[in-house]
Amino acid sequence: MLIQKQGPAAVVVAVVLAAALSGCGGGDGDDKTAATPSTKTSTPGGSDKPSGEPSDEPTQVLAQMKGEKDITVTLNEATRDSGGFVTVKGTLTNGGASIFNASSWVGSEMAVQKSGASVAGAVLVDAAGKKRYYVLRDTEGKCLCTMGLTLIKPGETRPLFAQFPAPPEGATEMEFQLPTMPPAKITIAEG
């Protein structure tokens, strides 16, 4: 095939023809998937997900903690996993007028200071069993939790999570504690 230089009119004609031909199906009309428009939604992270797939958006509120500078932590999920840990998920919303950094949420333990501005200082408290469960850490000493919680603008909401060792079976009523925030009572669901 010989390709020649064409003017803008030829390019427009080629685009129109390509669009017209792509609309031609060749089926008998019974293929319902061909007639269904694509239903994708763009997520803030830039990835596209079909709208029929389960969303990462929280669907319930287990507890809400409101702290200084109009910072709100909403806990949406606390699930016991078969791997022997509990994952707590939620969101952090800056309802204040200034940028927020979660540097005070790291906790005072020197080992978790590597996690930087994070929820590494969170604990689950089992009042009935009289035990505290600290956020798990990886082999480098960093928390298995949300890190990089810096420069959170007024009105901004960010997801957060923390993983803890699982309390004994049957221990489901816990208190979630985060430095500088009031405690919140949550119920652990079986995963």
Biggest pleated-sheet summary: 5 strands, mixed
Percent of sequence in beta strands: 25-35%
Taken in chain order, the helices and strands follow as HHEEEEEEEEEEE
- What is the helix tally? 2
Instruction: Determine Rg (CA atoms, Å).
Output: 25 Å
The quaternary organization reads as single chain
Span of the ends, CA to CA: 60 Å
The SS-based structural class is mainly beta
Shape: globular
Number of strands: 11
Low-confidence stretches: 1-55
Mean pLDDT level: 74
The helix fraction, in percent, is under 10%
Describe this structure in words.
With 191 residues, the chain is mostly beta strands. The protein has two helices and eleven strands, in the order H-H-E-E-E-E-E-E-E-E-E-E-E. Strands 3, 4, 5, 8 and 11 form a five-stranded mixed β-sheet that branches. The protein has a four-stranded antiparallel β-sheet with strand order 7-6-9-10, with no helix packed on it. Strand 6 (123-126) and strand 7 form a beta hairpin.
Highlighted features:
11 strands; four-stranded antiparallel β-sheet; 191 residues; 2 helices; five-stranded mixed β-sheet; mainly beta
